[in-house]
Amino acid sequence: xxxxxxxxxxxxxxxxxxxxxxxxxxxxxxxxxxxxxxxxxxxxxxxxxxxxxxxxxxxxxxxxxxxxxxxxxxxxxxxxxxxxxxxxxxxxxxxxxxxxxxxxxxxxxxxxxxxxxxxxxxxxxxxxxxxxxxxxxxxxxxxxxxxxxxxxxxxxxxxxxxxxxxxxxxxxxxxxxxxxxxxxxxxxxxxxxxxxxxxxxxxxxxxxxxxxxxxxxxxxxxxxxxxxxxxxxxxxxxxxxxxxxxxxxxxxxxxxxxxxxxxxxxxxxxxxxxxxxxxxxxxxxxxxxxxxxxxxxxxxxxxxxxxxxxxxxxxxxxxxxxxxxxxxxxxxxxxxxx
Length: 338
Fold this sequence. Notes:
Layout: H1 3-14, E1 29-33, H2 41-53, E2 57-61, H3 64-73, E3 78-80, H4 89-99, E4 105-108, H5 116-131, E5 135-138, H6 141-148, E6 159-161, H7 165-174, H8 183-194, E7 198-201, E8 206-209, E9 214-217, H9 229-254, H10 261-287, H11 293-296, H12 300-308, H13 321-337
Parallel strand pairs: 1-2, 1-4, 2-3, 4-5, 5-6, 6-7
Antiparallel strand pairs: 7-8, 8-9
Helix pairs in contact: 1-10, 2-9, 4-5, 6-7, 9-10, 10-12
């Protein structure tokens, strides 16, 4: 078995079954904090990716200007337009405290912007998530907050940072790391400097590390770099983390061996990277240079099946319950006729 196959096998342990025994919400409740007056597309891409992967519910918490637009993109999203410019920190805390118990994971950063009040909202969200042991993904302008104040994530092992090449360089600098460190070791050094966060160093290969163990995602993607693909990745990571949270709860209830939180972040990032790269490749095959991220969303489902296998999208109701009984009756009638 190849290293990739072993990693995917672990990723599949996190994926909840399509089972009639699950109720709404058990297959993932993802929250995206982002969306400002200038950016409405990014939080849509991240939150819609979660739904396309099979998360049950996807929330966007954003500025009113962005939220009113995002609501027109899809009726499937739950959009909270509460983060206005005039909202004080106490009110932001109250708002997020009301939403957080409804979520399994938070994605912070897509379309967040760098305005004072949105950066404050991100800071409050991270603080509350840490207090409640919630998994977090931080991307885009959420990383700007980390660059200016690394302490917001320092020591927290349930957070994944997904920097591009420029963001990665700024994080390395803000943590005072030696720029002469071997490039292949920088991501692990950054994770150790932050004492916990898992780093996804995006590039020709995605280097995923918690400072002690590193996975390399080399799944073939495309060379088209249209804006928004990073938001697809962050939404995918957030979904896997939501499943990771449920994995912990399921295994605890059944007294079974669970994947550790440190490994959950690694495999969540690896699975999301493989999915996003595959969706990019499949989309490019059809659209070539005209490819846009909005079209890429339509390939998430097909990519999921290609990466994780047909069993990952099989409805257990087809082999149990009423459907199984109907199938048995039909087979019986066929035999009697023959």
